[in-house]
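REQUEST ID: PR-0412
SUBMITTED BY: lab tech R.K.
PRIORITY: routine
TASK: structure prediction, single protein chain
INPUT:
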Amino acid sequence: MRAICKIYHQAEELHTQGIYVISVDEKTGIQALERIHPTHSAKSGQVERVEFEYQRHGTQALMANFEVATGKVIFPTIQDTRTEADFLAHIQQLVESEPGGQWIFIADQLNTHKSASLVTWIAEQCAVKDESGEKGKAGILQDMPSRAAFLQDESHQIRFIYTPKHYSWLNQVEIWLGILSRRLLKRGQFKSTDELKERILQFIVFFNETLAKPFRWTYIGKPLVA
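STATUS: complete
OUTPUT:
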């Protein structure tokens, strides 16, 4: 917790040095719901009335990058799946946007965030010469603890810091995902997954242009209870 909070407080200064602190996470199962009957707008003395029956048109998975220093959401991925390969491709497209930069990712402990393919790619990007070993048998790739230790190595140009289990609230992107849910998804109507995807992307552009700013993070990692 203290390591994450320290990085948050350093993020703006690190940004000026070409070191990017990115809070990353997924929101899966976002439903494209179309209400069967129109919503009745709020009137004097009446609340908005939303039809409770709806038709499902499928789901999408969002992988979002919240840049801690700027408060912007950059290079999002929205698609049908969220696999190990999908997460690797998501990280790759972000890193490739600034090839000379250094990257610190704040992420939870999902297994796709500690995958063998992610380790292999980062080892290549950071020119790590150590033998990777073999998944399930030996070396860096042996198991999730060994892969996590490698991915958190502070000497690497690309590294991860993992939130403790059950502490997802430490991940700033979770705050932004709550904003997305309240402002767009909660009462939104979407006739297809394509429309859902487009509306999310439009909201991200709107958010970055009009609302984005760094969160005022006051927590410093001390226990909240004795």
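NOTES: The chain has one domain: 2-39+51-210.
REVIEWED BY: pending
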